[in-house]
Amino acid sequence: xxxxxxxxxxxxxxxxxxxxAVGAIHQRADGYSVKLVGDDDYRGTFPTxxxxxxxxxxxxxxxxxxxxxxxx
Length: 72
What we know:
By secondary structure, the chain is an alpha+beta fold. It is 21% helix and 44% strand.
């Protein structure tokens, strides 16, 4: 296990679009990591939740509505 895998905090937000879950944000000790459904690895770690939400939205197909984020 890498250091980043062990630094996950127990908070996550799932991003939902019209067809269901499209990704997730995991809070870590060093920021918020973004992963889309189907990704093997995280796309990056961002300093704030708002920046991570914007990054996840930007990773979706162009023209996609901003997903709804629900904490789990």
